[in-house]
Amino acid sequence: MIKLIVLLFTLILINKSLAEKAHFNVKDSSGEHFVIELTDHDLIRHARDLIYNKAKERFHVQGKIVKEKRAYNSKWHFHLDPSSISFYDTPMDSCCSTELAGIGKRLDEACTPSFLPNCFCCLSSSKVLNEIKL
């Protein structure tokens, strides 16, 4: 019986950690703010390390644009798909470096061969500022 209780408790903890979401305020060099939602435990930890200057690499945000508003990021008509978000120092060759304002102004063109192919963007001057509790 005790083994069953321990197993059940362990499964509850695993499920809770898998369901964790965290939201972070990101700023770029133009002064624009953007909120990202992270669902991966390691990425959440890395973002928190960035806030407290514990991380020594992978400072900038990249991810796939989804042309839909989210309540946590209501200023913008797009968000980054949480499952696609990662952090980087040097963008991949296939990634277009851009600023938030540029994406907002050219959102109709985004995800086309002329602007942000594959809907993937590298926010080249992005910096994680703080965690937001929703």
Structural features, described:
Residues 20-133 form the BP74 N-terminal domain. This is BP74 N-terminal domain-containing protein. Residues 1-19 form the signal peptide. The structure is a single chain. This protein is α+β, with helices and mostly antiparallel strands and 134 residues long. It has one domain. 25% of the residues lie in helices and 28% in strands. The chain has helices at residues 2-18, 41-51, 100-105; strands at residues 22-27, 33-38, 60-66, 79-80, 86-88, 96-98, 120-123, 127-132. Strands 3, 4, 5, 6 and 7 form a 5-stranded mixed β-sheet that branches. Strands 2-1-8 form a 3-stranded antiparallel β-sheet, with helices on one face.
